[in-house]
Amino acid sequence: MAVNTEVKMSIDWLYSRVITYRLLSEMLQRKPTLSKLIEWRRDAGRIRQLSARSYSLLSELEQTPLATIIQSATDHATAYERLLSADQREEHLRASHYVCGGQERCGYEAILNSVYARAGIAFKKMEHESDDHIGIELEFMSLLAERLAESEERPLEQAAVIQAQLDFIEHYLLVWTDKMGTWLAETAPGSLYEQWGTMLYDYLRQDMDDLRQYAVQLHEHA
Fold this sequence. Notes:
There is one protein chain. Helix 1 (5-27) runs antiparallel to helix 8. By secondary structure, the protein is an all-alpha fold. It has helices at residues 5-27, 34-51, 56-62, 69-84, 87-90, 95-99, 105-118, 134-149, 155-173, 177-187, 192-220. The protein contains 11 helices and no strands. The radius of gyration is 18 Å and the shape is globular. Helix content is 73%, strand content 0%.
């Protein structure tokens, strides 16, 4: 029996989102070791295949030659350490650095923690990341994306998960990630992390539009 093309495309897109958010999250939480770079290289290719979209970051990861991947891992690790070695630089990966003053940071983290709790999600933080760290916020999106992909036969649950993602992108991620991308471009020009910053904001806006269109599609087929 032939698979409906529209259905197959939606399934591919749903799972491409899981991989994309997971990749973006990991790249700002994990040092790019050889094993990680091989994993990210594979993920970048999978994202392109499933979504039919690409970004310079994904292209560079996917096209990393296996013959030079050890040297690439060393170079990327050096860039990562230079970018994130100091505590003050780590602050630039936190939402509260951009959206509120120092005295308000605990309150902002508490708000995010309540958002995660309402979704029934708790994190095992490998590096003691704060709740407003970009890696944690993107990990939250990857988990919601996975929940959406696995709830195809439950339209009411899908609608709720779609809305939760739209709200988080619009009210939390988009309000500061463009500024963080600018900081990355200025701090690590020509590196994977500059490309990461450029991709993130563009991807978030595109994903928000795609989610809205998907919600309309679900409503029309209800």
